[in-house]
């Protein structure tokens, strides 16, 4: 809750979900005293919130432009560090959202984590206490600084490295810091064994030298140098330097001093680096908001020099708070002539003077003992303290040989009555800890190390520095720091957070009434409440009050030229606030209730908004009037100048336009002629004789004005290239090209198997039938001397749909020799070359195929085709087999051949030449055929799974329907699988051709060989005849054996 500018906070000893960004906005956006220091959850429970005091400090900094400070006080374990972290969290969340501000907030949060790791430790009363001087000594049940455990266990070291990086530390800096921390741990492991020197003095040696080797490796030092610095020290006797050995106890003390110096200076260096990282980048003096979190008051069973220094800091801070909240406020009421009943309170100035007073204070006597030469003793210091503090009611001393004022006071101890209670201090180690001088030999050894930070941390070790001035003692340094802190606090507007510890067990939901009452009593909260209840919460000088609130009265706004106190009186009369809420002092106006201050601020905010609207309105009107008058005056000048300029400009533009039009015409004509000439010259150079192929696509680019010309020239040039290409052809090549063009017209984009036939020439006579003597005799009878195509193909039976093809294990079918002449289509027995069917070309009216990759073709005929057996008893004229009435109608022919494209193309041309018009080419998946007296529907179907190889078929007939099944590919699929199919088809075709040749020449081999030997073959067929001859000889040998 609030006690003026003091907030009382009780440590719950557990995490509470009280602080969020919504609460930050609530306390940041509202005015002072508009919200209580808590946000009620229900009628019976209220949640205390530290955001209230943080929001008040931020608003004072923003509105009054004054330095602010939040002082967090309380004994150890009361939650001071956590309260300071919550204040810092509020400042981070309440700040702006710019990129620089966001980065600054992140650095502030990470700085807290880093300082907590290096500056906090576990104590008997607090698991995360802000401590110092714990590097070498810890009380039972307590721990050293967190960073040592984090470095050893590695649990939080990654988070700590992230904090280093956020604050601008490089990886090298982080490693260097961890090396120094590790070296402190290793130095603490070094042990010394006492030895006797030759001259009788005591020396020492290191028992675990390997630890020293590891320290040297970490800091980059020479082993002998560091070992010598730890075992001896250099003394100055006049102009001579004497090297004296250290005893085991002296070396241990020197080692501890080095550890404390390393860690202390490293911590100071880290604080300076963090301050450099989080300080404002802009130059100039800026108002600040500080957060002070000091050590908590400590009172243990055994209290030493550390507890004495910590409690002295708390004593001074309590003195500042007491004088600010109790003493100065009552003195101000008296100065201002305000009626006031003084309230008594305990002032700890006596205790502070007893500790820090010059020449007679405890710290002064301790420094006097430390600065003496020779043997230093804690007992001598205690005896001087007993003499100085004799008769002082706040200090009791007991030492050997002195009287005992309290039987409960142990020997070699003194007792101080602090504001928080009486504490007994044991003086053992006071002189050594206050002295804590690091030998110059160790400083020089650290400076000579190759570690980059040690030269910065130990500048006194530089051999070039000749200053041998003795450094200040620990107590003196601490007293100077406390004095600077008090001066800094006195020039800032202070806000206080008084932290209360509910129990000694550090457990939640335990409230020890006696302990809490004791803390409330020694913190002076009761006196503060009495003063706040009977006093005034707000005061301000008349001139400042009038300057801040003069806009609330029409008599004081906008200016007031009389005495400020009169203006304030008029201002108060015009406000709807009872006059009893105000009191007039000699120089200041006092406001009693916080609610009144809030109402004044709210009135001022509303009035400022109205004034802002008024100022905006007047400014806009003034700006528009000035703009209008300026535009009106400028209109006449601009209109006159515009008319004269426009006349001159029109004349100039007209003259220039005529010149430009003339120049444009000349330039265009010359430019177009030049571009034409350049284009033609470039064409003549780039289109060389090597580019005369009809399929050559490259063409030089041209200007956009020459596009039509380029297209025309390109078309003419293409025709010329085609003409030159055609001139190279002989009659045979021309015929083949004509057949290829016809095949393209018929099958392109209609049948899939056409694509694989493009690259293969149409040979026609695949079995060399023209050289056969028996054929020469037979063709004369039928007038079929000119063979267009001849090859062994498969004829599909009309009745069962079986393929008449012979394999090694299927000899029940007879292969068929298909011959196409210029006048008819013939089917011959391949062994005897006897004609089985002859169909005139004029009787073929339709050619039917499927669009798939199969090799099936159907030839539709008009007239019946009698078989050879039916003609045995009837003699007809050669070539007139269809004139017999005894012929039994067989119907259309169904063939399968790998040269289906070539056969259909050649038959198409033969029928066209015979009839004068082309036959009908039907490419479809279903069509009708005539088998004898029946009409059969032929259907091509693609199977889902490739039961056969792509391109092969399986034929079945059921009634009047014949189905041709196969795993067919369309054009796109064929192009995709063509590469994989090449090897398979090449092997199949080679085997198939070899089988056909074996079957053909098995019966006709001797006769063909005889005819070939007796024939006169042209020169270009010599090689092929030789190959054929060898094949026939091999077949004949196979038949013989």
Automatic annotation (TrEMBL):
Transmembrane segments: none annotated. PROSITE patterns: IQ, MYOSIN_MOTOR, TH1. It is a peripheral membrane protein. InterPro entries: IQ_motif_EF-hand-BS (IPR000048), Kinesin_motor_dom_sf (IPR036961), Myosin_head_motor_dom-like (IPR001609), Myosin_TH1 (IPR010926), P-loop_NTPase (IPR027417). The keyword Nuclease does not apply. Residues 751-967 form the TH1 domain. It is found in: Cell membrane. ATP binds at residues 74-81. Keywords: Actin-binding, ATP-binding, Lipid-binding, Motor protein, Myosin, Nucleotide-binding. Residues 1-605 form the Myosin motor domain. GO terms for cellular component: cell cortex; microvillus; myosin complex; plasma membrane. Residues 482-504 are annotated as: Actin-binding. One of its GO terms (biological process) is endocytosis. It comes from the Eukaryota. One of its GO terms (molecular function) is ATP binding. PANTHER family: MYOSIN, UNCONVENTIONAL MYOSIN-IB ISOFORM X1. Belongs to the TRAFAC class myosin-kinesin ATPase superfamily. Myosin family. This is (California timema) hypothetical protein. It comes from Timema californicum.
């Amino acid at each position: 809750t609030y006690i003026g500018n003091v907030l009382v906070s009780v440590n719950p000893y557990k995490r509470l979900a009280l602080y969020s960004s919504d609460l930050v906005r609530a306390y940041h956006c509202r005015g002072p005293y508009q919200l209580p220091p808590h946000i009620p959850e229900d009628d019976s429970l209220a949640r205390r919130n530290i955001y209230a005091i943080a929001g008040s400090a931020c608003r004072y900094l923003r509105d009054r432009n004054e330095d602010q400070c939040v002082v967090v006080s309380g004994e150890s374990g009361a939650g001071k560090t956590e309260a300071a972290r919550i204040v810092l969290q509020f400042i981070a969340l309440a700040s702006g959202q710019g990129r620089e501000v966001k980065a600054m907030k992140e650095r502030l949060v990470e700085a807290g984590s880093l300082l907590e790791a290096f500056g906090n430790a576990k104590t008997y009363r607090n698991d995360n206490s802000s401590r110092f001087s714990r590097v070498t000594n810890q009380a039972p049940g307590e721990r050293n600084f967190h960073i040592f455990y984090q470095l050893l266990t590695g649990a939080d070291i990654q988070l700590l490295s992230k904090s280093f990086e956020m604050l601008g530390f490089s990886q090298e800096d982080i490693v260097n810091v961890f090396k120094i921390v590790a070296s402190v741990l290793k130095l603490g492991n070094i042990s010394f064994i006492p030895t006797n020197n030759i001259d009788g003095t005591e020396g020492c040696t290191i028992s675990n030298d390997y630890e020293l080797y590891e320290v040297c490796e970490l800091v980059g030092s020479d082993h002998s140098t560091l070992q010598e610095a730890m075992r001896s020290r250099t003394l100055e006797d006049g102009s001579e330097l004497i090297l004296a050995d250290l005893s085991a106890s002296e070396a241990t003390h020197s080692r501890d001093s080095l550890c404390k110096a390393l860690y202390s200076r490293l911590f100071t260096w880290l604080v300076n680096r963090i301050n450099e990282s989080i300080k404002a980048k802009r130059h100039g003096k800026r108002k600040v908001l500080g957060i002070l979190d000091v050590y908590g008051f400590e009172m243990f069973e055994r209290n030493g020099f550390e507890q004495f220094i910590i409690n002295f800091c708390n004593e001074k801070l309590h003195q500042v708070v007491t004088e600010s909240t109790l003493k100065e406020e009552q003195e101000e009421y008296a100065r201002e002539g305000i009626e006031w009943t003084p309230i008594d309170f305990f002032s700890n100035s006596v205790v502070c003077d007893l500790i820090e007073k010059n020449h007679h204070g405890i710290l002064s006597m301790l420094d006097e003992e430390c600065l003496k030469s020779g043997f230093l003793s804690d007992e001598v210091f205690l005896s001087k303290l007993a003499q100085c503090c004799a008769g002082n009611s706040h200090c009791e001393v007991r030492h050997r040989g002195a009287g005992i004022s309290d039987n409960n006071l142990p020997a070699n101890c003194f007792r101080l009555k602090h504001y928080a209670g009486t504490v007994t201090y044991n003086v053992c180690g006071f002189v050594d800890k206050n002295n804590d001088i690091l030998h110059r030999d160790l400083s020089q050894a650290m400076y000579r190390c190759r570690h980059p930070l040690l030269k910065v941390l130990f500048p006194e070790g530089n051999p070039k520095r000749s200053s041998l001035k003795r450094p200040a003692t620990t107590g003196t340094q601490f007293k100077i720091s406390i004095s600077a802190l008090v001066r800094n606090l006195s020039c800032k507007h202070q806000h206080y957070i008084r932290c209360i510890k509910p129990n000694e067990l550090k457990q939640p939901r335990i409230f020890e009434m006696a302990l809490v009452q004791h803390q409330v009593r020694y913190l002076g909260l009761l006196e503060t409440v009495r003063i706040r209840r009977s006093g005034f919460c707000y005061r301000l000088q008349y001139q400042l009050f009038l300057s801040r609130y003069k806009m609330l009265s029409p008599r004081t706004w906008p200016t007031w030229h009389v005495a400020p106190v009169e203006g304030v009186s008029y201002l108060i009369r015009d406000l709807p606030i009872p006059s009893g809420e105000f009191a007039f002092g000699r120089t200041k106006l006092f406001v009693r209730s916080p609610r009144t201050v809030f109402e004044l601020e709210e009135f001022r905010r509303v009035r400022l908004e109205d004034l802002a609207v008024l100022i905006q309105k007047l400014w806009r009107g003034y700006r528009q009037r000035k703009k209008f008058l300026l535009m009106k005056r400028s209109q006449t000048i601009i209109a006159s100048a515009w008319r004269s300029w426009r006349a001159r400009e029109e004349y100039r533009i007209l003259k220039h336009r005529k010149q430009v039009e003339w120049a444009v015409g000349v330039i265009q004509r010359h430019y177009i002629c030049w571009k034409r000439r350049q284009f033609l010259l470039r064409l003549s150079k780039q289109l060389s004789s090597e580019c005369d192929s009809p399929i050559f696509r490259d063409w030089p680019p041209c200007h956009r004005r020459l596009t039509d010309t380029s297209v025309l020239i390109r078309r003419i040039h293409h025709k010329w290239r085609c003409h030159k290409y055609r001139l190279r052809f002989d009659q045979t090549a021309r015929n083949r090209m004509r057949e290829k063009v016809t095949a393209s017209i018929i099958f392109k984009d209609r049948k899939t198997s056409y694509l694989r036939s493009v690259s293969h020439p149409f040979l026609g006579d695949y079995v060399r039938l023209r050289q056969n003597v028996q054929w020469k005799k037979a063709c004369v009878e039928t007038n079929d001397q000119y063979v267009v195509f001849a090859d062994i193909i498969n004829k599909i039976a009309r009745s069962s749909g079986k393929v008449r093809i012979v394999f090694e294990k299927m000899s029940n079918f007879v292969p068929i020799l298909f011959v196409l002449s210029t006048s008819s289509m013939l089917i011959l027995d391949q062994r005897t070359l006897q004609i089985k069917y002859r169909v005139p070309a004029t009787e073929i009216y339709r050619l039917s195929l499927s669009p798939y990759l199969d090799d099936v073709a159907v030839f539709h005929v008009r007239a019946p085709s009698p078989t050879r057996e039916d003609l045995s008893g009837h003699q007809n004229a050669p070539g007139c087999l269809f004139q017999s009435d005894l012929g039994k109608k067989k119907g259309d022919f169904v063939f399968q051949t790998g040269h289906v494209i070539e056969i259909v193309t050649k038959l198409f041309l033969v029928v066209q030449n015979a009839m004068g018009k082309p036959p009908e080419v039907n490419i479809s998946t279903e069509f009708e055929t005539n088998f004898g007296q029946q009409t059969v529907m032929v259907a091509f179907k693609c199977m889902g799974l490739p039961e056969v190889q792509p391109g092969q078929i399986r034929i079945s007939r059921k009634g009047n329907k014949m189905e041709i099944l196969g795993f067919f590919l369309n054009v796109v699929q064929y192009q995709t699988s063509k590469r994989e199919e090449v090897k398979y088809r090449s092997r199949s075709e080679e085997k198939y051709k070899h089988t056909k040749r074996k079957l053909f020449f098995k019966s006709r081999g001797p006769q063909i060989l005889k005819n070939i030997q007796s024939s006169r073959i042209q020169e270009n067929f010599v090689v092929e005849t030789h190959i054929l001859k060898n094949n026939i000889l091999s077949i004949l040998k196979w038949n013989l054996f």
